[in-house]
Amino acid sequence: MARSYVWRWAIILTATVVAFWQTWANVIAEARAGAAVGYYGIVIVLAVVAAAGLARKPHRQLQIFDKQADAITGVLALVISILIKALVVPRYSEQYQVLHLDVLAAGVFLAGCTALMFGLRPFGRFWPAWALLLACGPLTYRSLVVIFGGTSWSAGVVVTLFSAAAVTIAFALTVREAAVIGATVVVLGGFTVLLLSWLAPGAPLIVSQAVPSVTASVATILLVRAHRRRQGANRYTRGPALVPSVTWRTAVTCIVAGVLVGLVSLPERSPAIVAAGPPLTGSPALEVPAGWFETARTDYPWVRRYFGPTATLTRQYLSAQPSNEAVGAFADSVLAEPGVLGFLSGQSVEPPHTARTIVIDTFTDPHPAQLDVYPDATLYDMHKARRSEPRIVSLGHGVIGTLSTLIDETAYLTETMLVFSWQRGDEAQRVVIIAVDNPEPDAMFPEPQPSMASNMRTLIEVLFRGNTAIADITPEFKDAGLVTTAGRQIVAAQFGEEP
Fold first, then answer.
1. Are 416 and 483 in contact (CB under 8 A)?
2. Are 415 and 435 in contact (CB under 8 A)?
3. Which H or E run includes 37?
4. C-alpha to C-alpha distance for 178 and 169, rounded to whole angstroms
């Protein structure tokens, strides 16, 4: 029987690794870069612990198997995983690292292979462990981290909660035991988080994720086993293993499905272009270039909850000085320069007016990996907005920006956005320059705000209607000259030069 289990699991794991080899490679690369997705390795271990505990619990199971139902359910799960990877994941290419829906697809694929190789009855016996594995995905993790404060120690608390669920599933036999075991893991994990935050406040993210959860889980397991051994209660015995026989056709089905899913490529998403920037000044705001003056400045403390306690977001309102002849002259040269903004040819482009106002949103974070995980749209409420494909623009000093338009269907405005990123010492910065097609002084600009709920509505809309629902397929780059000129002047000003 043990040999049968070994070769069945060997086939299941081999098929899953082959089917989602790109996913595992991406997760490892992101974890090494400091992204939060490394926690999922802990979740996999926790699911194994929960399954091992369930396997040793007393249970009753009739030795009745329906191989036809096993085949139908297993194949259906494999098809669903293929559809998620081939159709759903590409729709969220910009949010790939935030959602990691391919991890969900891998879990569904693993469940389908397990149902085929072991049957539905044994598979259903372990449903709490499967629910833990599928429910603790990246979106759940990131949402809970935001709720608990957005710090690396909040991440430790969230993974501790996952550990509490796993240990409770593995060891609790009654509701009372579930409450006591879960509370013990949470208390021990919370104490470990506080101790680490005091002893090692600058610990890497993976340390704050792993150490509290592992410490609390191991300590609670030892306490539970010691308590039961002292009571002399033999309540934790291995139940009989009843699984149906399996044919070579089922094994071949899993392997073939794994190869087919592995041939489906994940969407290619270029990493954020992070240039080498000038040294960071003491202020999170940018130096105002000559020819502009700052009319207002706003700080947004809510970003600390989303991106960590050291993240900052500052908005500056800049207006062109009346004598700023460089704005119009520079814009004319940009529009006339071949190859730089060639996509503007044939379109009606309004040269920037000296009285125009722009805003600069500067997001600063010590973790460059955040720029790849969270697209620039994360900072804004993009519900009921349509955005064009980005265009590449050179801003000088090796800085590359992306230019796009955004149609706000609620304010009936067209916004032109120029985004660029650079590394300034130990800090990474993303700069967003925005102009709207309303030259009035009281023109409305998109406001940075926590918009998780509205962005979730956008994600659901994309799921059912596709990316065309939020795309501007006929963009008009009305203020391309203005924001490009401003962008080059701002970049030059940070290096202490004039454009």
1. yes
2. yes
3. none
4. 8
| pTM tops 0.85 | no
Per residue in 408-433, pLDDT (tens digit) is: 777 677 888 999 999 988 889 999 99
Q: Judge whether 16 and 113 are in contact, CB under 8 Å.
A: yes
How far apart are the C-alpha atoms of 238 and 258, rounded to whole Å? 32
Phi and psi at 356, nearest 5°, equal -70, 155
**Helices and strands, counts by H and E, the chain:** 19, 9
Q: Map residue 477 onto helix, strand or coil.
A: coil
Residues 213 and 219: their CA atoms lie apart, in Å, by 10
Distance, CA of 207 to CA of 186 (rounded, Å): 17
Tokens coding 17: 């690794």
Q: What's the pLDDT tens digit per position in 280-333?
A: 887 888 999 988 888 899 999 888 888 878 889 999 999 887 665 445 544 444
β-pairing, 400-408 vs 413-424, is antiparallel
Q: Strand (E) positions, 266-399? A: 274-276, 292-299, 312-320, 357-365, 385-387, 391-394
CA distance 89 to 107: 14
Compute the distance between CA of residue 43 and CA of residue 49 in angstroms, rounded to an integer: 10
Q: Which of 339, 399, 393, 374 is nearest to 452 (CA)?
A: 374
Q: Count the neighbouring beta carbons within 10 Å of the beta carbon of residue 493.
A: 19
> Which range among 227-231, 350-354, 387-391 shows the weakest confidence by mean pLDDT?
350-354
